[in-house]
Amino acid sequence: MRPNSGEPAPRPSPGVAGPGGGGIFREIVRLQQAGRSCVLATPLWSEGSAPVSRQAKLLVRDDGSTLGTVGGGAMEHEVMRVALQALGASEPRLLEFDLSASEAAASGMICGGRCAILVEPVAADSNTEAFAAAARAEASGEPIALITLLRPDGPSQKVAVTPAMEVIGNPCPLIEEALASLAAEALADGRPRYRREPVEAHIDPLLPRPGLLIFGGGHIGVCLAHMAGIAGFRVILVDDREEFANRERFPTADEVVVASPEEAFKSVAIGPDSYVVSVTRGHLLDEEVVAGALATPARYIGMIGSKRKVAEVLSRLRQRGFSDQDLGRLHAPIGLDIGADTVEEIAVSILAELIAVRRRPMELRMLQSRRQGVRGAS
Questions:
Q1: Which domains does the chain have, with CATH numbers?
Q2: pTM summary value
Q3: 352-365, pLDDT tens digit by residue?
Q4: Alpha carbon distance 357, 363 (integer Å)
């Protein structure tokens, strides 16, 4: 297995990051080390159909540039306005939005629901230990929980809590066992917590991006790798042909490697939150990818192809000793049935299925039963 073209190329930074605001804590540390200030906006809670993910984040630098998003539209415009005012301040501000009220309708925000967003000034010397721990976890792909204590008359205080319950940051008697327990729960299910008693606190689980291993550097692989990176996956592209597995074709992938399926499965760590997609150039290669993936705990395994191709591959895999239970893990033909026809549409259908499995795992069987397949090959 050979990495191609050295280190991953830097990702474009147009000002909008994926879910969770990828790279935000590393950027905060970079700014702090340069003696610069910024403002971090984080949703604390939401109700109804408020257009915000509680894992979203928006960073506003001291030059007015941004990284991430809290949902866009008029709500984000207001958050930006307040954030720019808060640069250089010390106390955070809590913005509450009622998107079902008449004033929300007047401003065009008629999504419904309610939410609150914390607009938090970050000075060069504020909460440096906790931010550094979050940045290290972000870079290494390790989970960590960030606890923000909200004070009624002063700046917020942050501590980081590792899965081993190590508390990193300024010691504070308000960091009690109950908060550590909530941090453990948040890390386990990936959902933030917000509580008002006995202290007002926000517990934010910072989880690594799920890994997506794409076998096949053809046209579908190119489109899928690009879109999956934007959608928050850590993308590893594998092809045994160097002319297809290179940085010129995959500038935004986290890793590009030249390897056979057998070599890749020996070298790449695949865990229960990993996704494997086979869009190779031929039946036999796809069969080897699926066989290798079924020997791992991967959360998702998908293979492109017509129903006839899928039936042939499944028959050969059964002859190799794989049971129906094993093969039941395979999504094939791959992708949600959205009527995809072009290469780009097929990549969208595959990514849609990846997201559905990631966000709505209880509906996995329903998705499988409805699958009618998509046409195309890489």
A1: 2-206 (no CATH), 211-370 (3.40.50.720)
A2: 0.72
A3: 999 999 887 655 55
A4: 8
